[in-house]
UniProtKB/TrEMBL annotation:
Binding site for Mg(2+) 1: D422, E429
Name used for this protein in its record: Lysine--tRNA ligase
Record-linked NCBIfam families: lysS_bact, PRK00484.1
GO MF annotations in UniProt: ATP binding; lysine-tRNA ligase activity; magnesium ion binding; tRNA binding
Length: 508
């Protein structure tokens, strides 16, 4: 029986064969370049090439140059060949810089001679890095160009580039981000936007006299969040270690030590699921401000996000990748969890509502009951079902159940809840903030309650951290704290999924 090839299998096989043939041809060119090293500068991979001008700077300087004009200025530039056309006595190539800006190279018989022109035709391929020098001119069609006098290959590409006019699919983009950066402007923009966001965050913190620190990523026990950690082993110490799930407990030690305004931007690792808003490895911002509370830290968070949006987009109204505009400006709404859930569900739910009533509501509403369900976990699941989807504008959801927030201070006037908020933007959680629990006696009680959950099989429950409790016993001032995912902040500003905002996401 003859098997029918899967759809696209024949095309894929043909593509692989073509790539194999191209690679063989390019490897032969590499060998030729190496053999010519005595007479030709550098060979296939010279150590360095002469560059006097950056392509973006030349484009800015000569943005108004008229078609056919000559500048009299000689420039040496380098870039990747992304377009090539050979027409007898004149060859054209488009060189692309790392930021995507381009300039044309014109290699003519009159300027370089027959031997050099022939070498260009025989050796230069799409994808090669090429260094050229010559006069800056504008072609007859008005394209900013280098009229080449000298050239050399700066790096020979052995594999061909993908089609520059056909967009890579998402899987190809995340698996081969280097190709994505070469062919797609949005990928380059996202990298620059991320750098701009981080710079903006640091600028805003500096304006408020915060100090940036670094805390351990390898920890003897995980803490600071309810999440499953990655486990590793230290040969030097012959002990089990954990990749951190949050920097919180170390940053609070810094506050105890007198660094009253402290923040960190760094990596967290959680051994959990991956989807459009979650990644096992992600960048996190955490900040703590002594003598403040969850209201003060909410004000700061709004300022941080809005300043980042302005830095990237020039306005608090951002344009997402799909063209949708989203307004991050103004003062954001603040709603309480229990009242907003009661209004949406049509039944009053309070911290005193019993588990039977919550379970009945969950069953009637088709809400899955989480493992090791507690009052707080059920309330949060119900809130997500009834309320979360209706939040359009950025919104601080305030005052969470006490049993899901073991590191948070109890509400100053509402029994059974804690002074915690989650910030929702575009329907996903962007940040969380607390009035921090600073009483070491109550904190120990909360840890003991978490340990009981762990004993019942809850893998995400916190453990008792004696070193952290010892720090608290030396006195921690009233403090407002917050945590925000950098990847998710990029999602809010760009409208992209989390794998697109991470330069090299983890993939199978």
């Amino acid at each position: 029986m003859t098997e029918t090839p899967a759809p696209g299998a024949a095309d894929a096989a043909a593509d692989d064969e073509d790539i194999f043939e191209q690679k063989a041809v390019r490897l032969a060119k590499r060998e030729r370049l190496i053999a010519e090293r005595e007479s030709a500068a550098g060979g296939a991979y010279p150590v360095a090439v002469r560059v006097t001008h950056a392509i973006p700077a030349l484009r800015e300087k000569y943005s108004g140059l008229e078609a056919g004009a000559e500048t009299g200025e000689t420039a040496a530039v380098a870039g990747r060949v992304v377009f090539s056309r050979n027409t007898g006595k004149l060859c054209f190539a488009t060189l692309q810089a790392g930021d995507g800006s381009r300039i044309q190279a014109m290699v003519s018989l009159a300027n370089v001679g027959d031997e050099s022109l022939q070498r260009w035709k025989e050796l230069v391929d799409l994808g090669d890095h090429v260094a050229v020098s010559g006069e800056v001119v504008s072609s007859r069609r008005g394209e900013l160009s280098i009229m080449v006098a000298e050239w050399e290959i700066a790096a020979k590409a052995i594999l061909p580039l993908p089609n520059m006019y056909t967009e890579l699919n998402e899987e190809s983009r995340v698996r081969s981000r280097y190709l994505d950066l070469i062919v797609r402007e949005q990928a380059r923009h996202t990298v620059r936007a991320r750098a701009t966001v981080n710079q903006s965050l640091r600028t805003t913190f500096a304006a408020h006299d915060f100090t940036e620190v670094e805390t351990p990523m390898l920890q003897v026990q995980p803490g600071g969040a309810t999440a499953r950690p990655f486990v590793t082993h230290s040969n030097a110490f012959d002990t089990e270690l954990y990749l951190r799930i949050a920097p919180e407990l170390y940053l609070k030690r810094a506050v105890v030590g007198g660094i009253d305004r402290v923040f960190e931007i760094n990596r967290n690792f959680r051994n959990e699921g991956a989807d459009s808003t979650h990644s096992p490895e992600f960048a996190m911002l955490e900040a703590y401000q002594a003598y403040s509370d969850y209201h003060g830290i909410a004000d700061l968070t709004q300022e941080l996000v809005q300043n980042a949006a302005i830095a990237v987009a020039g306005s608090t109204t951002v344009t997402w990748a799909d063209g949708t505009e989203f307004d991050l400006g103004g003062d954001w709404d603040r709603v309480s969890m229990y009242p907003s859930l009661s209004a949406a569900a049509g039944v009053e739910i309070t911290p005193a509502t019993g588990m039977d009533e919550l379970l009945a509501l969950a069953e009637a509403s088709g809400v899955d009951v989480p493992p090791h369900a507690t009052h707080g976990k059920l309330v949060e699941e119900l809130w997500e079902h009834f309320v979360k989807g209706g939040l359009e504008r950025p919104t601080f959801v305030m005052d969470f159940p006490v049993d899901t927030s073991p590191l948070v201070r109890e509400h100053r006037s509402v029994p059974g809840v804690v002074e915690k908020w989650d910030l929702y933007v575009r329907g996903f959680e962007l940040a969380t903030g607390y009035s921090e629990l600073v009483d070491p006696v109550i904190q120990r009680e909360r840890f003991v309650e978490q340990a009981a959950l762990a004993a019942r099989g809850d893998d995400e429950a916190m453990r008792i951290d004696e070193e952290f409790l010892r720090a608290l016993e030396h006195g921690m001032p009233p403090t407002g704290g917050m945590g925000m995912g950098i990847d998710r902040l990029l999602m809010a500003i760009t409208g992209l999924g989390i794998r697109e905002t991470i330069l090299f996401p983890l993939v199978k």
